[in-house]
Design goal:
Layout: E1 14-27, H1 49-64, E2 69-71, H2 79-82, E3 91-95, E4 109-117, E5 121-122, H3 137-146, E6 149-150, E7 156-163, H4 169-188, H5 205-208, H6 210-213, H7 239-251, H8 255-261, E8 277-281, E9 294-302, H9 314-327, H10 332-351, H11 356-366, H12 373-390
Parallel strand pairs: 2-3
Antiparallel strand pairs: 1-4, 1-5, 1-6, 1-7, 3-4, 7-9, 8-9
Length: 391
């Protein structure tokens, strides 16, 4: 049974875009033979392989979508201020520095890294009839069908979410960051494949952000805002746990300050590896009337090959993220009770030593995600099988 305060329909008032990272092969002198259908690879003698691949991909996406595709010859230096906001009604494809082939890539090819961002789609009508692909899926399917593509742990499936309501921007941002902080280790990460820290996957905010490294010491002179505290006698005893986990988040006085808590001081060894969640501030002139002044970026999931995982994880994963965004749009009282109840529920499940399947299934039911529970069991079994094959 879902939480009494939780209604996933609240999340209807948002839009989202997907961003996938992948590698396209360029033939060398003697590439290794590959099984299956013959797919396009960049010729060995291409004078500008990056531009050649971009041109071919743009042609395919243009022909398969109504929105059209824009190619960029080089990755913007500051992605967070350009990439997510540029041409929000178009597909964008550009070279990327986020993925690399590793030891498992087919030999005889040079692998070039790219990323493709979809237009922003309205959440309205997201739950299409079964077996009806969402518009963001078709270009991805065509690229995997027609191009020689390599995917691994470093090729991520990222999701950008933009609120369309007139809710208080800072309050909504604090709620969402608080929920991600509470759910990351206990729910979001367990729904993704287990990977080594040096695999290229994004790093967890609860371990690598400024907030994680300085918890409780960032704003020592500031009082915990009243929005985070319960005044009802029944709930006063529960304040300490939620305050301990999220007080620094609620002490932030601007979206920019909150965003800085989710960043980190990059040591050279991890430079270029993004965090799994961040707030991206929208440039004011480009923000449509009524839209929030920030986006949320979720970078937890990898992009899968259908050959590896025939059952799609993309739509169930999006529903998980939309449910968390929906919870951030509850009223102040409802949000506090929801966050406290969910934190207690997750810790209780750990305390009674619930199995991973029991644990995740119980949380999904609280978030009104029962429709995907069976799919997630299959997906997680496939993840475990792949992990066993690697070890």
């Amino acid at each position: 049974m879902s939480h009494p305060f939780f209604n996933p329909l609240i999340a209807r008032d948002l839009s989202f875009a997907t961003e996938v990272h992948f590698m396209v092969g360029q033939k060398l002198r003697e590439p290794a033979p590959l099984d299956g259908k013959r797919k396009w690879a960049c010729p060995a003698n291409a004078q500008n392989p990056i531009d050649r691949i971009l041109t071919e991909m743009t042609r395919v996406i243009d022909a398969s979508t109504q929105e059209g595709c824009i190619k960029r010859g080089s990755e913007p230096r500051d992605e967070t201020t350009v990439w997510e906001h540029e041409a929000p009604n178009k597909w964008l494809v550009t070279p990327s520095c986020r993925s690399w082939p590793g030891d498992q890539a087919p030999r005889g090819y040079k692998w070039h890294s790219f990323k493709l961002r979809s237009p922003f789609f309205s959440h309205q009508g997201f739950d299409a009839p079964p077996h009806t692909p969402h518009p963001f899926q078709r270009p991805l399917d065509l690229l995997q069908r027609d191009f020689l593509i390599h995917l691994n742990a470093s090729t991520q499936f990222n999701v950008l979410v933009r609120l369309n309501s007139s809710c208080t921007d800072l309050t909504a941002a604090k709620r969402l960051v608080s929920l991600v902080w509470l759910f990351e280790k206990l729910f979001l990460v367990p729904l993704t494949p287990k990977q080594q820290i040096n695999s290229g996957r994004a790093l967890m905010v609860t371990e690598n952000s400024k907030l994680a490294e300085n918890s409780g010491n960032i704003f020592p002179q500031r009082e915990v805002p009243v929005e985070l505290r319960n005044t009802h006698p029944r709930y006063k005893s529960r304040n300490s746990r939620l305050e301990k986990e999220t007080s620094d988040i609620w002490k932030a006085q601007s979206v920019q300050e909150l965003d800085l808590l989710m960043c980190r001081d990059e040591p050279p060894a991890r430079r270029g590896v993004p965090l799994a969640f961040s707030l991206i501030q929208a440039p004011e002139p480009a923000t449509p009337a009524g839209h929030a002044t920030w986006y949320a970026a979720f970078r937890y999931a990898p992009w899968h090959s259908p050959d590896q995982y025939p059952l799609r994880a993309t739509v169930p994963w999006l529903r998980v993220l939309f449910s968390i965004v929906a919870a951030s749009q509850l009223t102040t009282f409802q949000f506090k009770q929801f966050a406290e109840d969910m934190l207690d529920h997750m810790l209780d499940l750990i305390r009674v030593r619930a199995t991973e399947r029991e644990y995740l299934g119980s949380i999904m039911r609280k978030l009104a995600l029962s429709v995907d529970e069976r799919n997630w069991r299959t997906i997680l079994d496939l993840y475990a099988e792949r992990e066993a094959q690697r070890s």
